[in-house]
Amino acid sequence: MKKILCLMLCLTVPAFAQKFEGLALTPPMGFNTWNTFATNINEVLIQQTADTMVKNGMRDAGYSYIVIDDCWSLKERDANGNLLPDPAKFPGGMKALGDYLHARGFKFGIYSCAGSKTCGGYPGSQGHEYQDALTFASWGVDYLKYDWCNTATRDAREAYTTMRDALFTAKRPVVFSICEWGNSKPWEWAKDVGHLWRTTGDIHASYNAVQRWERGWKIILDLQYSLVQPADGQNNGIGQYAGPGHWNDPDMLEVGREDLTFAESRAHFSLWCILAAPLMAGADVRNITPEILAVMTDKEAIAIDQDSLGKEGWRYRAEPSREIWVRELSNGEWAVALLNTGDTAADLTLSFRDLWFIEGKRQIHDIWDKKDVGTNEKPFTKHLDSHDVAFLRLKPIKEPAAK
Ligand code: GLA
Known about the structure:
It is a single chain. About 45% of the residues are buried. The chain is about 25% helix and about 20% strand. By secondary structure, the chain is of the alpha/beta class. Strand 4 (about 145), helix 7 and strand 5 (about 175-180) form a beta-alpha-beta unit. It has an eight-stranded parallel β-sheet with strand order 7-6-5-4-3-2-1-8. It has a six-stranded antiparallel β-sheet with strand order 9-10-11-16-13-14, with helices on one face. It contains eleven helices and 16 strands. The chain binds alpha-D-galactopyranose.
């Protein structure tokens, strides 16, 4: 009898730890400290950011994860090997800060690293994975960004799987954000390990970055996402690896950072929505302009990013001063972005005949202008500033049934 009971238990209790399923069914949205604040972070900043995001509508627009990036801890673990928050930056401790965020309807995110030290030189989780996972659970952490500095010869899949198992064993559901910059092509192996994975090196707030594999989101996009390359027709997209619960992450938003024009911020946001990218605000949201806030909280744009079909879009066409980006949505709808990559303002035209794969008659809705602008039976033309974008939703028009 005992043997049968044991056998039944063995069959029903999972023998292996796994990733928490059912999380991040749409790309995670939130705020992360790194892009603007880097090491200069503290508890007041986090509290003020959360308070601002409640007041300015960001929380209600879906930005729910507030993530403290690198440089939050002391430089050494305590005598028992535990991570400790820097009391000068976080005098109330992490549990209290997590409670503060939870009380306001946010989720609490934190950062660690698979190496011996983080990129900023703070203790990493290598060799302390289970201990750190328990610590994070005791603080109420809901999201872990896990970096890749100082990992020496460590194997990425092993390192991230170890942390995944540690989180699962600690029993508090955590969105696991893999940040190894795409080095080992995590899209090929991380579907069952994490909920999102960085596909590139670090983003910078600059449109015209010129060196390949240098930073700058235009370059990142050029390299990573062009499914159709007009020059050689080569298919090198990675969109097919993304979907509900497992997303490609082209890095956090630079929307609203002072080095980008308004047009560039708006284009950046539109393309991230087309890419089903996580939307992690990286600007100081306490000090963004009303125009930028309107972009970041735009319901129609966010609905594209969060579309339940979870299919990542791609760059369909790149020409000298014009790019076309497309994304298939649920209910047979499509999103299209027409980007002016030129240095001057211009009238750009989109002929829907080019988009042969979007079938049937459709109404065209301009997301940023908030109006319907005709059907796909005629070309669409819009005057666009340099680096600005037309962001469109194409809805099928149901013809009345023939009598
Ligand atoms: C790496 C990551 C960044 C950020 C920093 C922190 O560069 O890619 O997103 O987390 O580390 O040091």
